[in-house]
Amino acid sequence: MTAPTHFAPLLRVIHWLMAILLLAMLFIGISMVGDLSPRHDALVALHKPLGIALLALALVRLAVRLARPLPPLPADMPSWQQRLAKLSHLLLYALMIALPLVGWAMQSAGGYPVALHERLLLPPIVPHDAQLYAALRLAHTVLAYLLFIGILAHLAAALYHALIRRDGVLSSMTTGTGIRRLPDGQ
């Protein structure tokens, strides 16, 4: 069986849906900081269910990624860059899963419900504890900044592949046209 030249369509759809939602969540989160926004309550009410939706999408995405073969990186890409790409993807997945879980735990520790809808509340996942709430709030903030940095690095790498290397890595996740393969010996 030959390796695919592009990502599976379902993985591409989930990737781009998550990209949009993650950027929206980061901007919503920034808008909520310090209760500066007059729409703080509305932003919080939006932030919580979107966070849980992103957690669910990240888990589905991880399952699809593990179940489907991935296109290999270009053969002429230095091995250190290939290792860095794999490590950065692992970190992005870890952050996309950890951030909403920490947010959910933070809300639980603060005694705040996580409402997916008016009558659909998630159960608390940690006990009510003010000190734990403070620690989780800091952790949630740090993880959000790390995810933002990770997204910027991911975007920079995508642009590097598209504009400098022109190796088809970006198109394997956008149009599905695939990664350019070099003939043997090149």
Automatic annotation (TrEMBL):
Listed GO CC annotations: plasma membrane
Occurrences of domain Cytochrome b561 bacterial/Ni-hydrogenase (ranges): 7-176
GO biological process: respiratory electron transport chain
Bilayer topology annotation: Multi-pass membrane protein
InterPro entries cross-referenced by the UniProt entry: Cyt_b561_bac/Ni-Hgenase, Cytochrome_b561_oxidase, Di-haem_cyt_TM
Cofactor(s) needed: heme b
Record keyword Iron present: yes
Keywords: Cell membrane, Electron transport, Heme, Iron, Membrane, Metal-binding, Transmembrane, Transmembrane helix, Transport
Transmembrane parts of this sequence: 12-33, 45-64, 84-106, 142-163
Compartments in which it is found: Cell membrane
UniProt keyword Ligase present: no
Entry GO MF terms: electron transfer activity; heme binding; metal ion binding
SUPFAM superfamilies: Transmembrane di-heme cytochromes
Record PANTHER family: BLL0291 PROTEIN, CYTOCHROME B561
Family stated for the protein in its record: Belongs to the cytochrome b561 family.
Record-given protein name: Putative cytochrome b561
Organism: Metapseudomonas resinovorans NBRC 106553
